[in-house]
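ok, trying the design again with the full structure, not the truncated one.
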């Protein structure tokens, strides 16, 4: 194996590992929130406590029951590398909503425990060149559409 081939494999692995870890984090959270806790249970536990803020209760319900599905779908897409950018956008939006909510009740919320690691992985996967991510369904779909590459 040439140095160039080894470097190419290393880059592919550098793209694979953070994508899979991020996908697993959100996919597993989504699985739990959709099938164990239930979206209604999620809304009641994490969103309805914000009924004492300026946010309308309907918006708390809407976000509370939607986020588990966004985590499940976005996490799955990122995990398998299919429509990865769309999946990352979904997960980034979830992180923005979560951050906003935490800051409403606690302006000194400790981001390093929950949001920051996920945000770093999200930005990393977004920033890495797509051509590096050879071990994804996006890459496989691209090769099947353009067999000359």
């Amino acid at each position: 194996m040439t140095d160039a081939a080894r470097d190419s494999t290393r880059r592919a692995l550098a793209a694979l590992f953070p994508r899979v870890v991020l996908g697993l984090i959100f996919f597993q959270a989504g699985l739990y929130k959709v099938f164990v806790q239930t979206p209604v249970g999620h809304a009641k536990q994490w969103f309805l406590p914000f009924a004492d803020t300026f946010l309308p209760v309907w918006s708390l319900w809407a976000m509370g029951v939607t986020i588990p599905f966004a985590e499940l779908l976005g996490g799955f897409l990122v995990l398998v590398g299919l429509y990865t950018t769309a999946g990352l956008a979904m997960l980034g939006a979830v992180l923005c909503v979560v951050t906003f909510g935490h800051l409403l009740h606690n302006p000194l919320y400790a981001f390093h425990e929950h949001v920051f690691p996920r945000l770093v992985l999200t930005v990393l996967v977004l920033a890495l060149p797509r051509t590096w991510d050879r071990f994804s369904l996006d890459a496989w779909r691209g090769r099947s559409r353009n067999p000359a590459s």
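Keeping the full-length input from now on. The longest helix spans residues 3-35.
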